[in-house]
Structure formats: structure tokens, C-alpha cells
Amino acid sequence: MRENFKKRFRESRNGVCGSKSHFLRLDLNPLCQNLVKISLIFLIFTGCTRFFVRTPNYAKIQVPNLIPFSEVEGIRQIQWQKIAKPRDPKSISAIILHNSGKRKFADFFRLSVENQFLFHIYIDASGTIYGDPNFLNREWTAAPGIDTEAIHIVYEGTQETLYNQKKQTEVLQNTIDALAEDLYIPKTNYDIISKKGIFTHNQAKRRFGGFVDFSSCGSELTLNQILSNIGGKFYEEDDWKDRFVTGWVLKKENKDLLKDSFHPTNGRGITKAEKVIFNYLEKTEKGFTPEDYRVKYTFRGKIKPSCVVLHYTAISEYFKSLRTLEARNLTASIMIDSNGKAYQLVDVIEDRAAAATGTNDNCIQIEIVAKDTEELLKQPEQIQKVKDLVLELTTKYKIPLSNEKLEDLSGVFSHTQAKKKWGGSIFLNAKDFDPGEEYMELILNSIGGKYFPEPEWKNRRTMDWAILYRNFQP
After folding, report:
1. How confident is the model over 262-280, as a mean pLDDT?
2. What share of the chain is helix, strand, coil (3-state, %, to 5)?
3. pLDDT tens across 392-426, in order?
4. What is the rounded distance in angstroms from the CA atom of residue 214 to the CA atom of residue 205?
5. Predicted structure pTM score
6. Could you tell me which of 107, 168, 125 has the C-alpha nearest to residue 474?
7. 147 class by beta-carbon count within 10 Å (0-12 exposed, 13-18 middle, 19+ buried)
8. What is the DSSP string of 14-29?
């Protein structure tokens, strides 16, 4: 029987793709022969892949010794179920690690629910596990951008306190290991872009935003230890997949890559600018921006201005600020020196700048030379020029003198406000900055505009901001 099988196999091989094949050798040219071979390989591969796809047995997945939230004294009256969203367990591909800091379980749970957040599992300092027994089928908001795919696990304390809690560490580690095995989640933090792996909340914040503060929640040292102990692989931030590529809410820049990739097409010494048409911008006797004050930049198209964004340079000197823009492959539309002189940096004001993610396609970007808000407020000639120039620009382009409606891209906004909405900056935290809301209030209210404090910004309390407006987050 074995010999017959071998004989049939040889005949089949020779008759289809072997050296004696009349079908391939006589009737088809070499190109067609290759196409047939490729097609056969494709059919074999696609027909067999279903045998290699692993499907978790969701009905049997559970966390041993889990105490349901509904059975815990002190939180039974909290209506936590109302903030759940149903989800298909098949969407789960990640575990997100959080920590509670100094807060104990009941307080941490209460604050989470009050702020419209929640987590799936909580492991206290003694190793006791609290959680939602239906964690596979319920989506909780804790790290917007990856909530649908994630199981959120909180451990009580910090990475420093965890180091001395052997039982807690063991339970945390075993829980993560078991869930990763049962759900076929990769035991690595390499590729958060794919939403497949085990990550800290800190890493999720950097990729997706949706955070209240930028404390290192979850702790990379803890994750490093856990992944090492469960046979996984931990990657430092610089080694995360595509960490220096666009798409991260908190950007990270590689100076060497920036230097290699920056090939300016416009600006100083490259193209000739058009004549300056605004009264409050510096110009030569022939009506052009002084050449030395222009920026080298990459042409990114044109805009129809509907808003203005104000920044400070975080540097006290004009030409150093200019060089910094170029070194980072960034472009503003205008820069205003500390002495009150304002210069058009681009060839034409309608050239698209690259200075504030989410607004570049619509806004004129104005950099104001100063190291911080305090220094800005001490430069009266510069303040007056900002007022005059903003008024001139908004009059020409019929832009409202208001910062209320950022998402409509219609008004005068701070870079702070744009960062809180869209992120896309290497400097990102939940505090006011760039150029500071005190400064924005001064400028807008003194030129007949209307300044709105943060709670009154349009839709400020929704979840689609890079920095959320909440008092607490897991």
C-alpha cells in the first residue's frame, strides 16, 4: 500500500509540475508555468491557514478567585454597570497595565466611576482580585483609542511598592500570563499600533492620547519584570515599532532622522517671496520680508485661513528660534521678536505651515519669541504687535475673535488648546502652556474679542480630546 501511494505521488508530481509534465512544458510558456505554480501555492496556503488559526475558548476563560465588584462592601451602591459598553470578545487583543498610586481600592473605584472610567480587574496589595466577571463581554473606558481591544488591569500601589509585595506580584504576573495564554495575546509591548500585546497605560497615552495627566501609569519597570518572568519580550521606548513615525499623540523626534529627511524646497536662499501685504509685518524698501529673517521650509500646499494659532518659541532669541524650527522640520507663518518686530517666515501667508497638529490645514501659525508665558507678559512692544497683527489678520480673513470653537477651526486659539484637542507634540501634558491662557485672555479681550476659559470650550468634556477634561483617570 505504501509503494502504491509513493507511485501515485510520483505520477501526480510528474503530471502536474514535474520534469515530465506535458501540460506545463508543452502547452504553456515559462511565464504561464510560473503563474500556475504561484496559483497552486496560493490555493494550498489559503486553504490550509484555517488549520493554524487559534480560536480562544471564551466560555471557559475566567480569572480564578475573582471577587465581583457587586459583592464588595462600600461600593455596592455605585452604579458602575451603567457606563459599560457591550463588546465582542473576539476583539480582545491587548492587556493594559495601570496602577492605583496611593489610593486604595474603594476610593480608586469610586473616583473612576465618577469620572466615567472603569477597569476590568484590580489586584490589591495582599493579592486579592476584584473585578467584573463579565470582563470579556464589556468594554470599559480607561484608555481611549484601545478600550475595545483591551483588558484593563490595575495593581494597587506603584512599581516601588510592588517590589516588596511578593504575593501581589505573583498574582498580577500569573493573571496576566494566564489571560495572554488563553486569549493568544502576544507577550510583548513592541507594537501598540496593532493593538496586540501587553502595554502600560503610559504607552497607550503616547500613541492614542485620551489621558487626564501624563503620570507613568502602569510603570515600564513593572512591565519589564512581568514580561521577562512569563517568557515575553520587553522593548524600551526607542525600540517600539515606528516610534519616530507620525501618528503618535505624543511625538518623539530623532534628530538624525530629521536631519536626513529635511530637504527644504522654499524659503531663505531657495525661493523668492512675494511682497508683504500686511501693514504690521516688517518689510524691505522693495516690500519684501528681510531675507535673513525667513525660514527654510518644505512646501506643503496652500490654505484658506479660517483661524489663527498663537505659540511661544520657548527660546528667548529670534534666530535661535528660527534655527530650531528648521532643525525640527517645522514651519510657522509669522514670528514676532521680543522687540515687537514681526516677520513673515513663508513665501506667502497662505502657504501651509507645520506647527500645530490638527490646525495646519486651516490656520495661520504665529510664533512669539519668549522662553515662557511669564517672559511674554513682560514684553509690552511685542504684546502690542501681537494685538495689531491678530486684528489685521482676522479682519482680512473674516475670522471670529473667539477661542470657543476649536473643533470648527474658526477663531483665535492657543497652541495649548490645539495640543489638548489633537496632540501631535513632543511637549504634551495636562497643564496650561504655549503661550498660556492668561496671555490668550489678555490678547483676545483687549482687541474686542471674547475669551472662553477651558470649561467653556465647545465640547470640552467629550472623550475625543488628546488631553481629557476630568479630575481623575485609572
Report:
1. 96
2. 35, 15, 50
3. 999 999 999 999 999 999 999 999 999 999 999 99
4. 8
5. 0.86
6. 107
7. buried
8. HHHTSTT-HHHHTTS-
For the record, the C-alpha cell of 111 comes out as 473616583
C-alpha cell at 396: 482680512
Round to whole Å and give the CA distance between 253 and 131: 39
Is 250:206 a contact under the CB 8 Å cutoff? Answer: yes
pLDDT band (50, 70, 90) for residue 39? low
Please give the single-letter amino acid code of residue 440. Answer: M
Which positions ≥6 away from 390 have C-beta within 8 Å?
A: 308, 310, 366, 401, 412, 443, 447
SS3 66: strand
What the block records as the C-alpha cell of 116 is 466615567
Q: Which residues lie across from 129 on neighbouring strands?
A: 66, 123
What is the four-CA torsion angle of 31, 36, 37, 42, rounded to 10 degrees? 130
Cell numbers 509685518 correspond to 281
All residues at 6 or more sequence positions from 106 whose CB lies less than 8 Å from its CB, including other chains: 72, 74, 75
- What phi, psi does 414 have (nearest 5°)? -90, 155
Cβ atoms of residues 429 and 435 within 8 Å: no
